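2024-03-11 09:14:02 INFO worker-7 job=invfold-0412 stage=load source=structure_tokens
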């Protein structure tokens, strides 16, 4: 059974779960924008057989604290994560991040090499996060933010999300709705306003990474946040980078292709 706990990351309370053998190697899971730790539920159970697993809600998400003035940039997310690892994990640790969580993982690996043993980057929006209005993500983020600003109920949100994506399963819609209900809508604003990476030098941070990196790329034809040119750029900047592309899979690889995601993840982790 997973029990939620609170960690004080320097005035920001982060909600987290922990499981597995405390004597095993640690691993930290970081969700994406509008997610929460529950998005890793299946991976947590499988990883706990071999790893000491931690997963927490980023600031403004789940049961972690909201902050004023939409201070949700990747620089601050990285500081929160570093404090969590120092305080709860002890480091060094492997880290697995999806989307926004992958950006945080880049920040950790590039600025706190003492804390990070290996990093798995699941479809990181490494460069489009600085110019989101030019992508298909922008109208979706604006619509989601504006919808949640209205004080919509959970039942109403489930109905609207079902209408917007009729191909999605009812259980997936409920999970998305629950995550959206639990977050600060202004967390979207940080990226809508293109300030999520404002105080974050992506090229310099990637170039500073020394640990092994697994770079997972979704299919650019169906919604990847990591584009072809950006994938090549990352590989050129990171000295030890293993790249795997998932054809026919959208941005949320671990959700949309869980079997292959886990196979690739476990193969990589077994080399650490």
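2024-03-11 09:14:09 INFO worker-7 stage=emit residues=272
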């Amino acid at each position: 059974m997973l029990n939620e706990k609170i960690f004080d990351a320097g005035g920001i309370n982060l909600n987290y779960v922990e499981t597995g053998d405390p004597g095993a190697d640690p691993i930290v899971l970081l969700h994406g924008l509008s997610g929460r730790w529950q998005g890793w539920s299946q991976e947590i159970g499988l990883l706990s057989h071999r790893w000491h697993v931690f997963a927490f809600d980023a600031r403004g998400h789940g049961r972690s604290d909201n902050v004023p003035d939409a201070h949700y940039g990747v620089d601050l997310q990285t500081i929160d994560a570093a404090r969590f690892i120092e305080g709860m994990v002890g480091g060094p640790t492997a880290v697995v991040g999806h989307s926004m969580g992958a950006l945080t993982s880049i920040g950790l690996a590039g600025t706190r090499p003492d804390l990070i043993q290996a990093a798995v980057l699941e479809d990181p929006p490494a460069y489009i996060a600085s110019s989101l209005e030019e992508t298909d993500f922008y109208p979706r983020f604006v619509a989601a933010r504006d919808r949640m600003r209205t004080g919509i109920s959970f039942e109403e949100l489930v109905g609207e999300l079902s209408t917007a994506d009729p191909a999605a399963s009812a259980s997936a819609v409920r999970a998305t709705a629950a995550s959206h209900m639990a977050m600060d809508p202004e967390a979207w604003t940080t990226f809508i306003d293109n300030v999520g990476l404002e105080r974050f030098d992506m090229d310099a941070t990637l170039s500073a990474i020394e640990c092994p990196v697994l770079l997972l790329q979704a299919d650019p034809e169906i919604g990847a946040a990591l584009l072809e040119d950006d994938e090549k750029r990352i590989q050129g900047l990171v000295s030890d980078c293993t790249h795997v592309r998932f054809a026919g899979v959208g941005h949320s690889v671990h959700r949309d292709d869980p079997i292959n995601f886990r196979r690739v993840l476990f193969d990589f982790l077994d080399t650490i």
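2024-03-11 09:14:09 INFO worker-7 stage=report msg="The mean pLDDT is 96."
2024-03-11 09:14:10 INFO worker-7 job finished
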